[in-house]
Amino acid sequence: MGSPLDPTTAAGYALMYMAAIAVIVLLLLPILITFLLLLLVAGAIQIVIFLVKVTTVALIRGIVGLFRNPGGPRSPGSHHGGLVPH
Questions:
Q1: Residue 9 gets which letter from DSSP?
Q2: Which pLDDT score is estimated for 2?
C-alpha cells in the first residue's frame, strides 16, 4: 500500500508550508523588532536608574561622613573605644 501522494506533490506541499511560514515571520518581524527594542530601552532605563541610585548613596555617605566627625580627620592611632591590637 503506497501513500496517496506522489513525491512531487508532497514536495510541493512542503515548499508551500515553508513559504507560508516565511511570510508569517516576515509579517511579524516589525512587531518582533519593536518588542526587542522596547526590551533594550527598558534595560537601559534600569541601568540608568541603578547608576543614579548608586551615585545618590555615594553622595549621601560622603556628606554624612563630612558631618559625622567635625573635629578633623581621624589619626591612625586612635580607635575610638574599639579593640586595640597587641
A1: H
A2: 59
